Amino acid sequence: MKVILSALVASSIAALLPTYRRPQLLPSPAPTYNPIPSPTYTPQGRIYAILRSNSDIAPDGSSYQYGYETENGISVQESGNLIAAGPEGGIAASGSYQFTSPEGLPVQITYVADQNGYRAQGNVLPTPPPIPDAILRSIAYNQAHPEPQTPGRNYYRR
Protein backbone atom coordinates (compact mmCIF):
# COMPACT_ATOMS: atom_id res chain seq x y z
CA MET A 1 0.00 0.00 0.00
CA LYS A 2 2.85 2.40 0.89
CA VAL A 3 4.55 1.67 -2.44
CA ILE A 4 1.41 2.49 -4.42
CA LEU A 5 0.84 5.69 -2.44
CA SER A 6 4.48 6.76 -2.99
CA ALA A 7 4.19 6.09 -6.73
CA LEU A 8 0.99 8.16 -6.95
CA VAL A 9 2.55 11.09 -5.10
CA ALA A 10 5.70 10.96 -7.25
CA SER A 11 3.73 10.85 -10.50
CA SER A 12 1.51 13.73 -9.35
CA ILE A 13 4.50 15.87 -8.53
CA ALA A 14 6.18 14.98 -11.83
CA ALA A 15 3.03 16.01 -13.74
CA LEU A 16 3.05 19.42 -12.05
CA LEU A 17 6.72 20.18 -12.76
CA PRO A 18 7.62 21.79 -16.08
CA THR A 19 9.51 19.56 -18.43
CA TYR A 20 13.26 20.00 -18.44
CA ARG A 21 14.84 21.02 -21.70
CA ARG A 22 18.53 20.65 -22.15
CA PRO A 23 20.08 24.00 -23.06
CA GLN A 24 21.40 24.33 -26.57
CA LEU A 25 25.15 24.78 -26.68
CA LEU A 26 26.39 27.40 -29.08
CA PRO A 27 29.40 26.51 -31.20
CA SER A 28 32.56 28.12 -29.88
CA PRO A 29 34.16 30.69 -32.15
CA ALA A 30 37.33 29.74 -33.94
CA PRO A 31 40.46 30.77 -32.03
CA THR A 32 42.14 33.88 -33.33
CA TYR A 33 45.76 34.87 -33.17
CA ASN A 34 46.40 38.12 -31.32
CA PRO A 35 49.92 39.44 -31.83
CA ILE A 36 51.81 40.88 -28.86
CA PRO A 37 50.90 42.92 -26.90
CA SER A 38 48.15 40.64 -25.63
CA PRO A 39 45.33 42.01 -23.53
CA THR A 40 45.05 41.67 -19.78
CA TYR A 41 41.58 42.27 -18.41
CA THR A 42 40.78 43.95 -15.11
CA PRO A 43 37.56 43.74 -13.08
CA GLN A 44 36.63 47.19 -14.34
CA GLY A 45 36.86 45.95 -17.92
CA ARG A 46 39.90 48.01 -18.88
CA ILE A 47 42.40 46.24 -21.10
CA TYR A 48 46.14 46.50 -20.37
CA ALA A 49 48.82 45.23 -22.72
CA ILE A 50 51.39 42.62 -21.73
CA LEU A 51 54.72 44.32 -22.33
CA ARG A 52 57.03 41.39 -21.61
CA SER A 53 56.39 37.69 -21.24
CA ASN A 54 58.87 34.84 -21.09
CA SER A 55 58.87 31.23 -19.96
CA ASP A 56 61.32 28.38 -20.13
CA ILE A 57 60.97 24.77 -19.06
CA ALA A 58 63.88 22.33 -19.04
CA PRO A 59 63.32 19.41 -21.45
CA ASP A 60 63.59 16.92 -18.58
CA GLY A 61 61.14 18.91 -16.43
CA SER A 62 63.71 19.53 -13.69
CA SER A 63 63.43 23.32 -13.72
CA TYR A 64 61.35 26.18 -15.05
CA GLN A 65 61.13 29.92 -15.02
CA TYR A 66 58.61 32.48 -16.18
CA GLY A 67 57.88 36.16 -15.91
CA TYR A 68 55.70 38.87 -17.33
CA GLU A 69 55.09 42.59 -17.03
CA THR A 70 51.93 44.49 -17.91
CA GLU A 71 51.28 48.03 -19.00
CA ASN A 72 49.69 48.93 -15.65
CA GLY A 73 52.80 48.02 -13.63
CA ILE A 74 52.15 44.39 -12.67
CA SER A 75 55.39 42.42 -12.69
CA VAL A 76 55.77 38.70 -11.88
CA GLN A 77 58.82 36.39 -11.86
CA GLU A 78 59.16 32.79 -10.65
CA SER A 79 61.66 29.99 -11.03
CA GLY A 80 61.61 26.47 -9.68
CA ASN A 81 63.69 23.32 -9.47
CA LEU A 82 62.82 19.70 -8.89
CA ILE A 83 63.88 18.52 -5.43
CA ALA A 84 63.59 15.23 -3.60
CA ALA A 85 61.45 15.59 -0.48
CA GLY A 86 60.88 12.27 1.27
CA PRO A 87 59.43 9.40 -0.77
CA GLU A 88 57.94 11.80 -3.32
CA GLY A 89 59.69 14.47 -5.30
CA GLY A 90 58.63 18.07 -5.15
CA ILE A 91 59.42 21.47 -6.55
CA ALA A 92 61.17 24.32 -4.79
CA ALA A 93 60.06 27.65 -6.19
CA SER A 94 61.03 31.23 -5.54
CA GLY A 95 59.78 34.41 -7.06
CA SER A 96 58.34 37.84 -6.65
CA TYR A 97 55.50 40.00 -7.79
CA GLN A 98 54.66 43.66 -7.57
CA PHE A 99 51.73 45.89 -8.40
CA THR A 100 50.04 49.07 -7.23
CA SER A 101 47.05 48.63 -4.90
CA PRO A 102 43.76 50.43 -5.55
CA GLU A 103 44.79 52.85 -2.79
CA GLY A 104 47.95 53.75 -4.74
CA LEU A 105 50.33 51.82 -2.44
CA PRO A 106 53.14 49.94 -4.23
CA VAL A 107 53.01 46.27 -3.22
CA GLN A 108 56.18 44.15 -3.45
CA ILE A 109 56.23 40.50 -2.37
CA THR A 110 59.06 37.96 -2.58
CA TYR A 111 58.54 34.32 -1.66
CA VAL A 112 60.09 30.89 -1.39
CA ALA A 113 58.07 27.66 -1.46
CA ASP A 114 59.89 24.41 -0.74
CA GLN A 115 59.93 21.47 1.67
CA ASN A 116 59.85 23.98 4.55
CA GLY A 117 56.58 25.55 3.37
CA TYR A 118 55.65 28.88 1.84
CA ARG A 119 57.51 31.89 3.19
CA ALA A 120 56.73 35.38 1.92
CA GLN A 121 58.20 38.78 2.68
CA GLY A 122 56.84 42.09 1.56
CA ASN A 123 56.10 45.66 2.38
CA VAL A 124 52.38 45.08 3.00
CA LEU A 125 52.45 41.80 4.94
CA PRO A 126 51.62 42.06 8.63
CA THR A 127 54.49 41.57 11.07
CA PRO A 128 54.21 40.77 14.76
CA PRO A 129 55.14 43.45 17.26
CA PRO A 130 58.57 43.11 18.91
CA ILE A 131 58.74 41.07 22.12
CA PRO A 132 59.09 43.38 25.14
CA ASP A 133 62.46 43.36 26.93
CA ALA A 134 60.90 42.17 30.21
CA ILE A 135 59.51 39.07 28.48
CA LEU A 136 62.85 38.36 26.77
CA ARG A 137 64.65 38.60 30.13
CA SER A 138 62.05 36.31 31.72
CA ILE A 139 62.51 33.70 28.98
CA ALA A 140 66.30 33.87 29.32
CA TYR A 141 66.03 33.48 33.11
CA ASN A 142 63.70 30.48 32.82
CA GLN A 143 66.04 28.81 30.33
CA ALA A 144 69.06 29.43 32.61
CA HIS A 145 67.22 28.20 35.75
CA PRO A 146 65.01 25.19 34.86
CA GLU A 147 62.80 23.74 37.60
CA PRO A 148 64.11 20.47 39.01
CA GLN A 149 61.96 17.53 37.99
CA THR A 150 60.57 15.67 41.03
CA PRO A 151 59.33 12.15 40.29
CA GLY A 152 55.60 11.79 40.92
CA ARG A 153 54.92 15.53 41.06
CA ASN A 154 52.15 16.73 38.76
CA TYR A 155 53.17 20.11 37.31
CA TYR A 156 49.92 20.49 35.43
CA ARG A 157 47.53 20.22 38.37
CA ARG A 158 44.46 22.44 38.10
Strand order of the largest sheet: 1-2-3-4-5-6-7
Percent of sequence in beta strands: 35-45%
Q: How would you describe the shape?
A: extended
Major β-sheet profile: 7 strands, antiparallel
Radius of gyration: 30 Å
SSE run: HEEEEEEEH
Number of strands: 7
State the end-to-end distance: 63 Å
Q: Could you report the average pLDDT, rounded to the nearest whole number?
A: 78
Percent helix: 10-25%
What is the overall number of helices? Answer: 2
Low-confidence runs (pLDDT<50, min 5 residues)? Answer: none
Structural class by sheet pairing and helices: alpha+beta
Task: Write a structural description.
With about 160 residues, the protein is α+β, with helices and mostly antiparallel strands. It has helices at about 1-15, 135-145, and strands spanning about 40, 45-55, 65-70, 75-85, 90-100, 105-115, 115-120. The longest helix is centred in the first third of the chain and has 15 residues, at about 1-15. The mean pLDDT is about 80. One of its GO terms (molecular function) is structural constituent of chitin-based larval cuticle. Keywords: Cuticle, Signal. InterPro entries: CHIT_BIND_RR_consensus (IPR031311), Cuticle_Struct_Prot (IPR050468), Insect_cuticle (IPR000618).
